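User: quick one, sequence for these tokens?
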């Protein structure tokens, strides 16, 4: 797709190139033409690795990292306790894990609750796992404070290892945008307020909350939703 995640990676490739860093981006499938062109323009190499076959992917990544000896390996949508993270550390690289989603979900009233003893044992096992494996990661980047809090709570990550970097948008892409035509298409007039939400139409995005809030704004504002799902 062409979403915020993809735009962020393309922007990152450009910034790394400008800083004199040689970057290789590894994906689970071939990138679309627009994205491949953007990476090429940024001087970044791309590779495809079939992560659906974990053992083969781990072996391929290990060989790649041993040959390239990168200074830094930056994981997206790979859990911090994945063997891939340990492989990157074994190759001598510093490791970043980028947390894009909340770790852990609130329990449902319908789910059976664990007893106090079982909960204590589970918490102890998680703490032991964290003590053993968190050392493989130098920095955890969370896309929001809410995600960062969930990482700290679920995986006992030290606060000094966590940093929040919200997904950014390159506003220069929209420098030549002209809103009058869109206003005419929407019949909004020159002065009517327009609120635009661009996102996947998935439950966790909370678009339903936005719709309910708009009903309480108390003014003649137009809500524009762009996305699919």
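Assistant:
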């Amino acid at each position: 797709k062409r979403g915020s995640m993809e735009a962020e990676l393309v922007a990152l490739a450009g910034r790394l190139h400008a800083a004199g860093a040689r970057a290789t981006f590894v994906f689970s499938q071939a990138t679309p033409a627009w994205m491949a062109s953007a990476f090429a323009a940024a001087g970044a190499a791309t590779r495809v690795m079939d992560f659906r076959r974990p053992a083969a992917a781990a072996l391929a990544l290990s060989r790649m990292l041993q040959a390239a000896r990168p200074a830094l390996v930056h994981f997206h949508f790979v859990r911090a306790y994945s063997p891939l993270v340990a492989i990157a550390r074994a190759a001598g690289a510093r490791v970043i894990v980028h947390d894009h989603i909340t770790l852990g979900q609130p329990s449902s009233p319908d789910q059976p609750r664990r007893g106090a003893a079982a909960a204590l044992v589970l918490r102890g096992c998680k703490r032991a796992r964290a003590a053993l494996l968190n050392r493989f990661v130098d920095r955890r980047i969370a896309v929001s404070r809410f995600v960062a809090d969930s990482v700290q709570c679920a995986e006992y990550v030290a606060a000094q290892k966590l940093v929040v970097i919200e997904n950014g948008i390159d506003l220069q892409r929209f420098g030549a945008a002209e809103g009058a035509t869109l206003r005419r298409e929407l019949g909004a007039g020159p002065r009517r307020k327009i609120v635009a939400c661009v996102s996947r139409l998935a439950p966790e995005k909370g678009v339903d909350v936005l719709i309910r809030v708009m009903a309480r704004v108390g003014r003649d504002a137009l809500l524009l939703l762009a996305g699919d799902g």
